[in-house]
Amino acid sequence: MYRGKRYNDAIALFHFFFNQSNIVPNIVSYNYLINTHCDESRVDVGLEIYRHIIATSPFSPSPVTYRHLTKGLIDAGRIGDAVDLLREMLNKGHGADFLVFNNLIKGFLNLENLDKANELFDEQVFGVDGVVNATFMDWFFNKGKEKEAMDSYRSLLDRQFRMIPATCNVLLEVLLKHDKKEAWALFEQILDNHTPPNTQAVNSETFNMMVNECFKLGKFGEAFDTFKKVGTNVKSKPFSMDVAGYNNIIARYCENGMLSEADELFRELSSKSLTPDVTTHRTLIDAYLNLERIDDALKIFNRMVDVGLRVVASFGDKVFTELIENGKAVDCAKILKKMGDKDPKPDASCYDVVIRGLCNEGELDPSLDILAEMVRYGID
Question: How confident is the model at residue 126 (pLDDT cuts 50, 70, 90)?
Answer without folding.
Answer: low
